[in-house]
Amino acid sequence: MSRVVDISNIEELEKIAKKFPSNLIIIDFFASWCMPCQTIKPIFAELSKQHENCIFLKVNVDEAEELMEFFSPTSLPTFILMKNGKAFYKWSGSDENTLKRNIEKYMKFDVSKLEENNSNNQSNN
């Protein structure tokens, strides 16, 4: 059974992010009329079963104006990775290998490294 959860607003996303702060959250922005979105849909569902320590979310762009405005995906499907309540990586396209590679690469990613880099960059300016 798929572990993909449909969300449609910021409150739902925040609740999930707070409940699972250290888990990698993968958000799939899709549309029912988008053929590449439909192509990647079963792969996304299968990956949700393989990676039980990750949270897989789907956002229907036609039903989630608030999330669309917040994340501003420019093409579909768009995937966004989050951890500790912070979105840190975004890409578009329905390439199965890219999706798998990014999940593997960022599953154990330490978001605090981004914060360190940002504060280092700011102190160097």
Low-pLDDT ranges: 119-125
Overall tally of domains:
1
CATH fold-level assignment:
Glutaredoxin
Q: Could you tell me how far the N terminus lies from the C terminus, measured between alpha carbons in angstroms?
A: 50 Å
Taken as a percent bin, the fraction of beta residues is 15-25%
Tally of helical runs: 5
Which CATH first-tier class would you pick?
Answer: Alpha Beta
Describe the structure.
There is one protein chain. With 125 residues, this protein is α/β, with parallel strands linked by helices. It has one domain (4-124): Glutaredoxin. It has 5 helices and 5 strands, in the order E-H-E-H-E-H-E-E-H-H. A 5-stranded mixed sheet has the order 1-3-2-4-5, with helices on both faces. Strand 2 (25-30), helix 2 (35-50) and strand 3 form a beta-alpha-beta unit. It is globular and about 35 Å long.
Secondary-structure blueprint:
Elements: E1 4-6, H1 10-19, E2 25-30, H2 35-50, E3 55-60, H3 65-71, E4 78-83, E5 86-92, H4 96-106, H5 112-124
Parallel strand pairs: 1-3, 2-3
Antiparallel strand pairs: 2-4, 4-5
Keyword list:
alpha/beta; Glutaredoxin; 22% strand; disordered C terminus; single chain; 125 residues; 5 helices; 5-stranded mixed β-sheet
Explain briefly what this protein structure is.
This protein is of the alpha/beta class and 125 residues long. 46% of the residues lie in helices and 22% in strands. Strands 1-3-2-4-5 form a five-stranded mixed β-sheet, sandwiched between helices.
